[in-house]
Design brief:
Number of domains: 3
Helix content: under 10%
Strand content: 35-45%
Number of strands: 32
CATH class of the largest domain: Mainly Beta
CATH architecture of the largest domain: Sandwich
Bound molecules: CU-O-CU linkage, copper (II) ion
Mean pLDDT: 94
């Protein structure tokens, strides 16, 4: 097909014109991109959607060569996609068939602390944990992954991660899963089958890129527009995502909800744990590589092609991209006397000079508060994730965030030697005895102690809350 050949040649030409050699020949991308299956729930009598997940060991040939030991949910690597709507009651049945204790955290979910799946909700080998909650938040691309203190990096690197999609209201964006609504879980791997996830300053930075567990995948698309839900599920790598042909695309959502309106860009950046939803238009008959390009950090070195997208010659019509997005959450409004809390990241194993201690409550927050959290980074690259909340970035060293990154989020890049200020909207579930976490989502840093704990309490009771909690395990 002459047109495809020309496109491939154009790709190569463009890449060398930019001064970088193409990381790979587009022809090398020929394995069908894996799309994690949707997890079918069973419906209980009261309408509760029950989802069953089993953490298990297996073997996968992720990269060329011998299969290696991998871990997954309901399969050998990664996990199925969970999809629920705002208002749904959900119950998760999580069974641990690993040989060691783990947890499952619902990253991005607004839920009671006891359901959060952080280090305080361990699941022993052979045990089952059954959290339940009512989904009540804007449409989001969230995800789930283990969070056992000190071992998150290893458990996630082995493959334990999955997507959790929340729908809210009628679909105005492409939303046929696997057709024009496609998850892209980005992970980088090294050839060593059992690398030390705590080595060096940043832990594992791979040079082999997987998308949904597929190395050099190929995705066929058949519609004029496709929504991609991109999750950085890597241990440390920061991605700067572009298309090899330089095409622009629209960002429609971030970690914690839709943007007010689509924002046209030709590049987005994601640190570990962050998500972005984009809508990409195709003309038909073209093929294009999605790639990440080097930045100026230690955690974004290297140009890598991630996946090849091949558009059918004739594309099915898609609904037009709306000018305003329904269901976008209202801006977080900071009250004049808002509490300001400061968090200092220096080194890689402490926040405000203190290593994570599971028995210590670091912060006590009144339910429903909006606060300013100021995160100062005195060293190299970090990011910052807060459980349970949605926040908006006020500024980074005084500068407003780029438009596409100005929506509701739960994880944010904190550049070297800079200060990020966040307007944080806390939720309404109170539990003075069970903390939520905040931490660097570079998993090597999280595991070595760059993490703290906060509880949400009835307003007015902040001073009565014990600052140490008993540990039961
Ligand atoms: Cu994605 Cu505390 O985690
Ligand atoms: Cu860090």
């Amino acid at each position: 097909n002459r047109r495809q050949f020309l496109t491939a040649a154009a790709l190569t030409g463009l890449a060398s014109a930019c001064g970088s050699t193409p990381a790979t020949d587009p022809a090398a991308f020929r394995t069908q991109l894996r799309v994690p299956p949707l997890l079918e729930p069973s419906r209980g009598e009261d309408g509760t959607l029950a989802f069953a997940l089993t953490m298990q060991r297996g073997r996968s040939a992720l990269l060329p060569g011998e299969p290696v030991e991998t871990w997954g949910f309901n399969g050998p690597y990664l996990g199925p996609t969970i999809r629920a709507s705002r208002g749904d009651k959900v119950r998760m049945t999580v069974t641990n068939r690993l040989a060691e204790t783990s947890t499952v955290h619902w990253h991005g979910m607004r839920l009671p602390a006891g359901m959060d799946g952080g280090p305080h909700q361990p699941i022993e080998p052979g045990a089952t944990w059954s959290p339940h909650w009512t989904v009540d938040q804007p449409a989001t691309t969230s995800w789930y992954h283990p969070h056992p203190h000190g071992a998150t990096a290893r458990h996630v690197y082995r493959g334990l991660a999955g997507m959790f999609i929340v729908d809210d209201g009628p679909a105005e964006l492409p939303s046929r899963y696997g057709v024009d609504d496609i998850p892209l879980i980005l992970q980088d791997k090294v050839l060593d089958p059992a690398p030390d996830p705590l080595k060096g300053t940043f832990g594992i930075l791979g040079d082999h890129m997987l998308v949904n567990g597929t190395y050099r995948g190929l995705l066929n698309v058949r519609t004029e527009r496709v929504r991609f839900r991109v999750l950085n599920g890597s241990n440390a790598r920061r991605y700067h995502l572009t298309f090899a042909d330089g095409r622009s695309f629209h960002v429609v959502g971030g970690d914690a909800g839709p943007l007010a309106a689509p924002v046209e860009v030709d590049r987005v950046s994601l640190t570990p744990g962050e998500r972005v939803e984009v809508v990409v238009s195709f003309t038909g008959g073209e093929q294009v590589l999605l790639r990440t390009v080097s930045g100026s950090d230690d955690i974004d070195e290297g140009d890598f092609d991630l996946v090849k997208i091949v558009a059918a010659p004739r594309l099915a019509a898609s609904p037009p991209l709306p000018g305003r997005l329904a269901g976008a959450p209202a801006p977080v409004v900071v009250p004049p006397q808002a509490t300001v809390r400061r968090f200092r990241l220096n080194g890689h194993d402490a926040i405000n000079g203190q290593e994570m201690d599971m028995s210590r409550i670091d912060e006590v927050v009144p339910a429903g508060a909006v606060e300013i959290w100021e995160v100062e980074n005195t060293v190299y690259a970090h990011n910052f994730h807060i459980h349970e909340v949605a926040f908006q970035v006020l500024d980074v060293d005084g500068a407003k965030p780029e438009k596409w990154a100005a929506g509701h989020k739960d994880t944010v890049y904190v550049p070297p030697k800079s200060t990020v200020r966040l307007a944080v909207q806390f939720g309404k579930f109170t539990d003075p005895g069970t903390p939520y976490m905040y931490h660097c989502h570079l998993l090597r840093h999280e595991d070595s102690g760059m993490m703290g704990q906060f509880v949400i309490v009835e307003p007015g009771t902040e001073n009565q809350v014990p600052r140490t909690i008993p540990l039961h395990h």
